[in-house]
Request: fold
Amino acid sequence: MRISTLQAFNNGVAGIQRNYSNATRTQEQISTGNRILTPADDPVASVRLLQLEQQQNVLSQYNSNLTAAKNSLTQEEVTLNSVNTVLQRVRELAVQAGNGALDPQDRKAIAAELGEREDELLSLMNTRNARGEYLFSGFQGKTQPFVRGADGSYSYQGDEGQRKLQVASSLNVPISDNGKSIFESVTNAGRLDSALATTPIGSTLRVSAPLVQDEVAFAAFPSGGVEVVFNNAPDERTYNVYEYGADTSTATPLATGRMDEDAGKPDKLVFAGVALQLDGTPAGGERAVVLPGKVNVDTATGTITTGPVANKQGILDTIASLRMALEDPSTDNGEVRDAVAVALTNLDHGMVSVDQARGNIGARLNVIETTQTDNEDVALVNKGVQAELRELDYAEALSRLSMQTVVLEAAQQSYVKIAGLSLFNVMR
Reply:
């Protein structure tokens, strides 16, 4: 086979270019530290690297969400800690207000501090986060959750939503709590009312407002209420408890008790988790009713009606009710005692609700901490796999570059010699 001079030249140049390209590529791998410079170098590894980079980007977004969730929950926890501190002080003031030796001026002084604490709580419950959104308004981040009305009562303006952030492929963590579930859905210990339906001549009996002090035992309380019926003289201090509306002449009493002979010492009737204070001296034949809702007795006809009373009461409304009772100069010691008893129980329920919310936040913060650790571990493994797929074996690359350099030099020298071969040189 005959090879033309042009073909020989072209083959020589192509060989030099090919060997130069190989050496240059190896030098570029060494300078970058990467084995794969283009997808064509290793298609399978390139696809895997792309998947790992996408996973790394997702982990970075999860880490950002974890940081945002942690900041939000930490702020909420700090706010609830402050709320709990204020409630502890309010409870101390309520205990002081229950002292029967206080005069109206002393009660007004306590009511003044209660008013300040009430404003402080309102401010805490309307706390905003760094984005200017209200912490306790549910999904309505731009709506102020708690608003005070003209009559001094409070209303919740947010919703019952709970904002969440995705912190893992299948894990969403709540980063907020709505104010209704924490501060408004507090069991109302004063959801019952009492009144004397019958008051004989000469009777000084007084029945306090009922207090639900044991929620578990209250499950056995008749849904329609009860009535306390005192025996006629001479056994007028003995009473029986019947289900409201029952025929007391034939019905079996649900409970029986007797008032102490000391008229100055109040007696406490406890039935199905409900506590009732009995004061004064009965004349015999009195009938007191304890019913759900607000009890109204028509003294002319003896008709008993009930108005609505909420089973739940907000913490702010509890404090406001106690404050107004202390501010009213016409409130007697018995009414103050009832207001303090209800307030103390409702405050305890409110603090339990706040503590439960704080416990939930602590649990979420623990989840965030473990998820961050898991994400860091996954990211570390991810980077290790990427390194195995992408990074260069320097020892192998340097050895290969040395051989490619030798081959390139040999090709260049061969080309020079071949290029010098010509028939004209022989004919000279």
